[in-house]
# Entry
Amino acid sequence: MLTLSNCQTKDGKILVYASKAEFTDDPIEEAFFGCGGVCEIPDMQEKMIRLARGGFKHHTSVGAGHMKEILKEAFTTYLGYDWVEIDG
# Structure
């Protein structure tokens, strides 16, 4: 289980998204440089289209566990950030 998330600033506002995914057992090439992992992201193509059209960069943060609803509450209720829904 994992949660992927990222944020950006746009017109003086902070925009945030998060979504759930699952780690797989696929190996990472030994020659790979940096941090890496393989996960299964439901409806990835649609999410990537929403993110690209929304101006988000290709990087994301990853946290172990499903925390989307907790992050949404914290970012929107307590910090006043704008939420971008990418899960259809």
